[in-house]
Amino acid sequence: MENLALIDSFSEFKDDKLIDRVTLMAILEDVFRNALKKKFGSDDNFDIIINPDKGDMEIWQRRVIVADDDLDLDHLEITLTEARKIEPDFEIGEEVSEEVKLIDLGRRAILALRQNLISKIHEHDNTNLYKQFKDLIGEIYTAEVHHVRPRVVILVDDEGNEIILPKEKQIPSDFFRKGDNVRGIIENVELKGNKPQIIMSRTSEKFLEKLFEQEIPEVFDGLIMVKNVVRIPGEKAKVAVDSYDDRIDPVGACVGMKGSRIHGIVRELGNENIDVINYTSNIQLYITRALSPAKVSSIKINEETKRAEVFLKLEEVSKAIGRGGHNIKLAGQLTGYELDVIREGNVAEEEDDVELTEFSDEIDEWVIEEFAKIGLDTARSILKQDVNDLVRRTDLEEETILEVMRILKEEFNA
Prior knowledge:
Elements: H1 2-10, H2 14-17, H3 21-40, E1 46-51, E2 56-66, E3 77-79, H4 80-86, E4 95-100, H5 107-134, E5 140-148, E6 152-156, E7 162-166, E8 181-192, E9 195-201, H6 205-215, H7 217-220, E10 224-232, E11 236-243, H8 250-255, H9 260-268, E12 273-278, H10 283-290, E13 296-302, E14 307-313, H11 314-321, H12 326-335, E15 338-344, H13 347-351, H14 365-373, H15 379-383, H16 387-393, H17 398-413
Parallel strand pairs: 2-3, 7-9, 11-12, 14-15
Antiparallel strand pairs: 1-2, 2-4, 5-6, 5-8, 6-7, 8-9, 10-11, 13-14
Helix pairs in contact: 3-5, 6-9, 10-12
């Protein structure tokens, strides 16, 4: 019972760690064998008998009987006189098994055993945690905000595991308070020393793909396939979808009536603008769809260089490029082609058109850059636009846009 009481005192925290008794006893055996090696130099002549059902264990030391004046190694040998105190009919050369009480190891040894046990259990927990979350990489996971720091948000799941959401893995519009539930994908598990560090991401393309699986039954069931996902987190994303069944409209099924199905995904991603397009192996058609809402006149493809010249009417150029150049950038990433925009238009007008940079003495450089971001880099390309539309697509005030148009009109009316 002495051993049992000591083992219980060692393992009093096992319930908090959710470690089963069999595993605990195996760890205990390893800890005790290490202690025996340290004390006696070897554990070869020790037997450890484990009873997992009772949570008890016994340690027996085997020693060979030698003559009283031949004792050399007392941890391997025992004198005949001492042996006969255990059993009167023992003879020289026989082996004696004697139980070792843990209390006999001494107070310092017991404290060391306890500390070693704690260390081994932490190591066991960390190994299990690492394996558990390694299997969850690429899957959506939900955890609660525990602490918000400038460069990282610390999350805790229902089992008390700590999960890291770095600033660069957060959507720019994300704002968290303690107690908030946060969804993301487990992107990586790294070992920092012996402790696993679990990294969550909300900016990964995989997160958006998994949200489609979660929110759209046809994707979950495999009737609709997500072929590719590209995104600028919090701004814009493009998702190419396909279906084996011709009766299913993959885009319509993903978007839903009046956007009802995709609305939850958009809200989860901080109102990220999501374009869902039909995938096709016809690269010209794929590029045309990827550049939506712009209407493409024609496309010239170079397969070797993976470049495509996209011909657009002047009024379609800004739509193809999109706010901040996001649309054309994502279209290129989605299709795997470098896209070059070629403007089509009235030849006479193009010949007397003027680059916007020519007006740098009258128009501030940052204003010129704002127009360039949406594909407007000449005087006529701006004059053809609607003022309200320009206010919506740029960060410019209406007053600034009207002043720019006045300056440009004077150029052609002079």
